[in-house]
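4.2 Preliminary Data

To establish feasibility before requesting continued support, the project team ran the inverse folding procedure on a target of 454 residues. The structure was first converted into the token representation described in Section 3, and no sequence information of any kind was made available to the design step. The complete token record follows.
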């Protein structure tokens, strides 16, 4: 295979992440403000430690449902009235929950900040969780589940989590919950979860845009003057990996012309000191177009239109996985090549060219990511969520550039574990025999059944 010589990257253009200041509100909520006077716009993000990881057992999906229902009505305003007030002010507001936190995001014109915060404060302190809106959101989740289960890609991703994590680990199920768990969530569950988790002491507020710390704090103190309370008990669900050893699962889709393939295991928590070496190694392995896995499976063998590896960084150890879709007849071959690349990255140090490619890419895209107040607020929200140091974004590009090929090799050897790999294939039943010939490990076979109606 001939690969054209890549032009050498130039030095990264100068960039400084916006300055920000820390404070706290009288009610105990943390506050971070980045004053950016470039445009008359402000983004406010309320970060609450109420992500899906805190779902009670049997109520998986509660955190996401609660967060999404916050904008659906208060004791004095309907969802329609709230939306109308925000639109009239030229703003947008939404809320959702990820694995680690729930977030309410407001972006508005800076001259309307005080009135917009009044709406935000009403949602935080006076959410009424109307039964009809809760039912609608639950029906939307059911429809989402049906759609995921009808697509090989969605099936593969859900099955991979089941195979990688212990059955009682929260991470073994989708963040939005299953049909059974979502069906069991009542309005009382939502009201109780909100009362337990949405307190100032369990939250931080991030403000980015055309407003000073003093003015932001004054406006927030007024809008959130009635927000009080102490955090309830936070559920510790655990995210233990499944029992050790290799294991494979074939999810049968009769007659499928191509297969969805997932290979990986439990990765690292976001706070791990090897975040940078592992990220650089992973970028070279499968994170950029000219990565080893993509060059092998796509360019050399023509098995796929694209293959990549990712680690889903979370507070606890998220999954590390290689993903691709390949034709049925080359599924086993593609799996062998993927495993070979996972072993090679532990044996062969990155070349200087590979390291230069991924570091220049990560350094180059860094400024592009933070060109709006919403993106800067999201970055600061991540700072809070993962307890990163205040100079994290100032030193990011230097820390990327400091990773050596030896660092990347060490990270691969310590954190990629061929003996612990799990493999999921969603494809034709004939693959059972071909996968068996790989001697990968025990193979379970599941025939996907049509989803039950609700």
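Position-by-position output of the design step:
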């Amino acid at each position: 295979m001939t690969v054209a010589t890549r032009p050498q990257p130039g030095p990264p253009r100068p960039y400084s992440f916006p300055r920000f200041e820390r404070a706290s509100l009288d009610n105990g909520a943390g506050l971070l403000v980045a004053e950016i006077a470039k445009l008359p716009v402000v983004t406010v993000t309320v970060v609450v430690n109420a992500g899906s990881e805190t779902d009670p057992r049997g109520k998986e999906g509660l955190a996401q449902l609660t967060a999404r229902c916050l904008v659906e009505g208060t004791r004095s305003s309907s969802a329609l009235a709230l939306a109308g007030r925000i639109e009239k002010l030229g703003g947008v507001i939404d809320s959702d929950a990820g694995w680690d936190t729930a977030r309410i995001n407001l972006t508005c014109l800076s001259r309307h900040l005080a009135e917009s915060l009044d709406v935000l404060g009403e949602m935080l302190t006076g959410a009424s969780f109307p039964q009809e809106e809760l039912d609608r959101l639950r029906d939307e989740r059911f429809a989402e589940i049906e759609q995921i289960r009808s697509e090989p890609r969605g099936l593969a991703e859900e099955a991979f989590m089941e195979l990688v994590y212990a059955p009682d680990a929260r991470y073994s199920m989708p963040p939005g919950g299953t049909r059974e768990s979502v069906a069991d969530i009542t309005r009382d569950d939502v009201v109780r979860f909100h009362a337990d988790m949405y307190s100032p002491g369990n939250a931080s507020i991030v403000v980015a845009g055309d407003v000073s710390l003093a003015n932001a704090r004054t406006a927030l103190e007024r809008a959130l003057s009635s927000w009080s309370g102490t955090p309830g008990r936070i559920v510790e669900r655990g995210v233990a990996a499944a029992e050790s050893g290799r294991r494979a699962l074939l999810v049968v889709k009769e007659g499928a012309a191509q297969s969805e393939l997932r290979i990986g295991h439990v990765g690292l928590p976001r706070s791990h000191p090897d975040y940078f070496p592992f990220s650089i190694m992973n970028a070279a392995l499968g994170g950029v177009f000219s990565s080893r896995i993509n060059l092998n499976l796509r360019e050399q063998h023509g098995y796929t239109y694209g293959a990549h590896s990712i680690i889903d960084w979370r507070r606890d150890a998220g999954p590390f996985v290689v993903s691709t879709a390949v034709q049925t007849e080359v599924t086993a071959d593609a799996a062998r090549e993927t495993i070979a690349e996972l072993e090679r990255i532990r044996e062969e140090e990155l070349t200087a060219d590979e390291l230069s490619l991924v570091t220049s890419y990560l350094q180059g895209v860094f400024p592009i990511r933070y060109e709006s107040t919403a993106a800067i607020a999201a970055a600061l929200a991540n700072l809070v969520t993962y307890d990163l140091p205040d100079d994290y974004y100032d030193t990011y590009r230097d820390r990327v550039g400091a990773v050596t090929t030896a660092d990347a090799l060490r990270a691969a050897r310590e954190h990629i574990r061929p003996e612990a790999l799990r493999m999921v294939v969603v494809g034709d039943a004939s693959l059972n025999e071909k996968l068996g010939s790989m001697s990968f490990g025990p193979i379970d076979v599941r025939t996907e059944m049509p989803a039950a109606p609700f």
